[in-house]
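Standup notes, structure subgroup. Blocker cleared on the protoporphyrin IX containing FE input:
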Amino acid sequence: MTIPAGDQLQEQAKTATFVWQMSELGDPYAKLLLRQVNPYRFCEQARELGPIHRSKVGPWVTADHALSLGILRDRRFGVRRADGTRDLAQFTSMDDSFLKLDPPDHTRLRRMVTPFFGARRFNGQRKRIEQLCHGLLDAVDTTKPFDLMDELVRPLMNTLVRDLFQVPEDVAERFDRNCTTTGRVFEGFASPEQYEELEAAVADLRAVLGELVELRMEQPGDDVVSELLTAYREGGVTMDEVIGVLGLLSIAGTESTSHLMGNGVLALLEHPDQWELLKADPELATKVVDETLRYDPPNQLISRVAHVDVELAGARIEAGDSVVILTGGANRDPKAYPDPNRFDLTREGGPESLTFSTGIHFCLGAALARTAAEICFRVLVDRVPTLHQAGPVRRRMASSIRGLHRFPVSA
Ligand code: HEM
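Run returned:
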């Protein structure tokens, strides 16, 4: 059951007031939740309070890399409470997928789509991704200011997500629109109308996915819908679950990967020496991906709930307590990465960033996101070597997602 729009807004307003009050008392996590332009200084303040501390807002908070890694791999923590109830209010009827399930249901559903998401599949699509990037850049006059998000990265990711499903051309625009609106859930709502618009998009996305399922029942193909329908026919998954998994895959990748690309290009343009390095050696595009994932990740928070009482770094976390991992903070933990606030393509060693999570919920789309972003950086530096920022960026106002709405650039 979802929460009615009015109650949702009231809840949101109460929470916002409380968070603001706690930020006034100096709580770093509360300050971070206020959607700050620079979350990293609050991550540092959080780290100064110890490897893990209890925020005045409620959850335990950590920006310690080793500790975060341990929590994400520790089966004493889950994404729901031990009794299976949710820790947080359900935002929309789509917000119910294996991302938010613990084993055994998580394992059963994830297993059905895992084979589809191997690195080999996306490596085989490199030519297609390259052609898409070139096609999008062919359509803009790069000598005049253009919006990198609208003209390149979002349409690229919309197409790649549609490819996973083999969405027919005649519903492509409707599919993209619904995915974009649904992805806005992370920003909260300014009015009941906005909330209702979101629920309408969720309902329509479900309808499109339903139509797609019917089509693939008749004409199976090499796509993730057909893969899930095989599992459905074998009785391993219900139709509601099929739609839930497809819903998750529709919205999980587009925004996050677009922001990886946007944040990466912004970091490169803000560090012209690094742009020059990439220009001289486009093979460094894979390093741009790694370093952006570490330095300015598109997702900033991962939550877990303790299933049993746990002692961690001297803190006693009780069953049912929430723990928030500040991904962006853990990725800048000086114990894990020397000189962590420097964007450096020549960085060697260090652990993998926590941006794709780790453990059983490790991002299923990581190979797709990596391949798409690497090719996008490579094509961009090749096609527009004199790329520069052509106006102020507009940021997305969400504390969990870090990315750009507007990013004007030109050659
Ligand atoms: C840069 C881009 C991306 C980032 C930063 C990202 C990040 C994440 C993170 C942090 C999680 C795990 C959350 C947790 O541990 O609770 C996750 C899970 C997931 N991601 Fe991604 N993701 C990205 C791209 C994608 C793409 C392109 C897809 C697919 C189209 C995708 C599909 C998924 C799915 C299905 C899960 C659920 C995995 C599970 O719960 O077992 N992601 N992602």
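Discussed briefly. The CA atoms of residues 71 and 409 lie 40 Å apart.
Next: hand off to the docking folks.
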